[in-house]
Fold this protein.
Amino acid sequence: MNEHLPQHIAIIMDGNGRWASKRGISRLKGHAEGAETVRRTCEEMLKLGIPYLTLYAFSTENWKRAQEEVSGLFGLMKTYFRKELSNLLKQNIRVRFIGDHSPTSRLEPEILALMQEVTQKTAACTALTATFAINYGGQDEITRAVQSLAQQITVGQLKPHEITPDIISGALDTAGTPPPDLIIRTSGEQRLSNFLLWQAAYAELYFADVSWPDFQATHLQAALSAYTTRQRRFGAVPSTTAA
Ligand code: FPP
């Protein structure tokens, strides 16, 4: 393990639509090219030996997009996971999903079943944990966690004073995954857009001025170089600094 490298990179894959518009092609073609970048990025992570990758694929707010784009995006995701499953297993990649995947969510049963299948089939893989955030929003995740803790209090399994940051972390969709060390957002926008709000507390942020379909190994390397120059203090002062 290289201690100068982040152990967990999370990416806001932004700019597919603009990438497509510039080329006069449909937004969906931009997303399809973005799916290709997902595949390449997983390979880069394996080469670098970085064990955790989280990708923001569909937010709780993305339902506001045109129905054609939404169904096209889910069509792409279905094709991707069906086609990639054997490669993921060969590459020893474990896949997890975060977001609201309850039967009452807006996700159709077919995608819910596929996510369950991919999760189960790759559960024993160890080289990389790739987490896909689908129907995910940080505020929604925290709301569901609070509801579940409140429910435990109601039935007497938990007392209010027993709630700690660790208990909250354990009630989130990301339970069991370390928080991201580095969050990358492509396309030049500089905001979190409801991504990993709790988990991002001490993450380093890096904004790449390139659309997601154009994101290459060299851009990942640039983000990693920037990360290695950051001094992560987690609220403390450096040990050599006098009071
Ligand atoms: C943001 O770009 C991107 C998305 C909302 C979707 C991300 C999906 C993929 C990369 C493809 C499929 C994913 C998997 C898991 C295979 P945007 O559409 O907001 O771009 P814009 O800001 O330029 O319009």
